[in-house]
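pipeline/complex-builder :: batch 7 item 3
reading input block
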Amino acid sequence: MTKITLKNISTSHKSGSKLDNIDMVIETGEYIAVLGPTGAGPSEILKVIAGLLPVASGQLLFDEIDVSDFPPEDRGIGMIFEQFQLFPHLSVLDNLLYGPRMRREDIDKKIEVAKEIISMVRLDGREDAISRELSGGMQQRVGVARAIVAGAKILLLDQPYRALDAKIRAEMRVEIKNIVKGLGLTAIHSTHETEEAMMLADRIAIFNNGVLEQYDTPEKVFDEPRTEFVASFLAESNVWDITIDNNQVKLGEINIKYNSNKYPDKSYNRMVLKQHAIDLFFNADNIPNNWNSFNGKITKVRLLGEFIRVTVDVNGIEFIVRDLLNPDLRDPLHLIDEEIILGFPVNEVNLF
Amino acid sequence: MVKLLNFERFLSQRPFRIVFEVVIILVFVSFVLLPPLNLFYTVIADWNGVYSLIFNDDILKNSVWHGILRSISLSFQIAFIVTIIDVIIGIPIAHVLARYDFKGKSLVDTIIDLPLAVPTSALGFSIWLFWSTKDGLSFLWNGDIGIFDKGPMLLILGHVAFSFSYIVRNLKGVIEEVDVGIETAGRTLGGSPISVFRTITAPMAKEGLIAGAVLAFTRSLGETGASIVLSGVFQTAPVQIVSFMDTFRIAQTAFLSLILIIVSITLLVGVRQYARRVGLPQPVIYPTFERKISSKAVVRTRNIFSWMFFIFIVLIPSLFVMIYLFMNFTKNPITGDTTTGALYQVFDAPDRKWNQMRLSLIVSLEVALLVTLINVIIGPPMAFLLVKRKYWGKWRVVLDAAVDIPLVIPSSALGFSVFLLWGGLGLGLTTPGVAMIVLAHLTFTYPFSVRPMISYFENLDEAYYEAGRTLGGSDITTVRKIILPLIKKGIFSSAILTFTRSMSETGATLIVMGSSRSIPVYIIDLVEQEALPAAAFAASMLILISFLLLLLARFINRSDN
């Protein structure tokens, strides 16, 4: 229920982080994912919003109020931590009531609210448990409930599911997002995982080295990455030095067609091609229109569970291809040294 | 090499192991547990004699009892006030040391530890010089007399100086263990820094705070060396033990020692039992008030006050003796008289104080070395047995607590119980002198070599030992090649602790020394002879030695990480 505006926010190098001139607007009720490598900005942006990391310059607005100088306890935010950070000496209920107590609210009334939220996060009957009696997933549910009971209008989820097993993580992602959306809270969720960000977010902000590289819907950032970093961070990619010659990409001996409407300039020198965007064909007739295709030879094959990773040599250039494992392919390893045709859509060629 | 391995294989056989374990346990029982138990037995066995001497004397009636009551009550009052001051001042300092990084932090850390290593008699002497003589603080305005006379006020100042470190050390450790993230969580939920500290950090650090407070309390209760210098006519209980012994009033000494031992053990056990259950005032919330005192200005004022208190009440008075020595090194700064300079007194005066000083220093070093050596040999195995052997059953808990008993018992009472057991009144194995000093020091330094080792062994992964055995090493070979290298730094740093503790002890030494002198005792002698510059010389020397040992210990701990 709060709109967040970051205007030219920078942090000082002394604090060990280096957010640089961040401009971002987060609309009321939006669920934003902040994505990037560790230390590059995702957690730092959350800390700036929470007031845990001092801002060297710039403005932070909640709705129209400048909160840059507010201490964390006055910002009305709720933070969800990677390590849960439940107070170990308090029961679940007392953890939930900590915020209201600090804000001198009517505790009797708040107990009712707390109980509602407890059943919302499916912890009925656990009111008197202490944190070490709860599983990781349960602890994180308490963490979320605690922030909500405290009356947070903004939820900051700092890598909230990183410490959980894959199965619990998948459940929690959906469940907590539904609760957040149901209550109309504004949420900012930092993560290192593309999948998590793509799945949850209304918009994704991608950070590298303290710089906001791109801020857009999941589809947009995935299909139209604005920088080489974004393109190669979102999915495993082939990255090459290239030159542009005659409206074609020149990569070693081979020429690659690209969408010149998307890339009208002539001065590109890097190309990013997602590994999964490439397909392998035995028969040239199957290649769709508007695709690039090359003859090559398979040099390596690696099984990755449901995926297969194949290295193809095309005129001395190595293409790494990531594909779903075809169930018919009983023994993919026999493909080594096989001649093959490799193809990918013209639109998948990203130039920088 | 093969011979050694075969020999170790031979020694690893079951009978040898059993003999070894029995010896280690016997040593623990006879050197540490037996003396206080024997004291208990003596008082009970001779209860009629004790009773008539203390409660029903022909001439004194029960005035001895009243004297004992007076000294015990004084000791308790002082220990109580001292602990409260320690806690109030210690919390902010421990918090700053645990949570902030600043230049010179490790030096400050070492300086805070210093009073733990410096002999309390040197400390007490320095504090007395600073507060009570015209050469101390009054020197600034050319006063004729000091600010405080010997007595309760001076005792409090002195006891704060040496017990303060226990609180800071313990508290700093536990605050460091509280995840900063948990405090952050409290902040984001609306708590001001002080509210968060009181409702989250403090309850989580509670056990450390209580443990530190108990240590500070029992240290103050049982301290002898500084108290002798500072008490004047206001005898604390441990000082009274020493003065009873001076006139060889055995029954009275035994009775008072027993009371102190019982009180200390009750405190230790009580706290061990209840520390976990005691809650601090929790649900009461004063957010508005605490928000006000969380303001930067208030916090800064409080921190500055705490540090000022530390510097002016603890640090400067404790080290003042060095300034005094510097001023009186060659001659009296006012009269210019060289015969009252430290150099003349120590080296040139006809009574040749240096000879005696050197002798007592040698006694101290000898005793400390011997005690450390014995402790290194018997301590770690006992810790190992306590942790790894299953035969203790329920007794494990009792023995675990028993290891700590010598830590909290007043050392003069402990020294007396050693005297009673091994001396002419008991088994008659030795007489007061160096050997008995070693026995007494062995008793109260024992926890230093066992306690840290217990946690080392508890955290040691059994798989190392198992790997060593499966790779063909015999039991002893595996211990020597695998376990010892893993714990050697722990052994070394507890050895240094043992050494400094033995070097600095006064109370027990006074009881069992006979005609020998240790250097802390000799300082008291010099003070009583009013050879203050010479005393300052000895005290400064001891402070420097302790400081160097502390730096060494710190260096070893550092390279541990």
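note: Residues 206 and 220 of chain A are 12 Å apart (CA to CA).
queue -> next item
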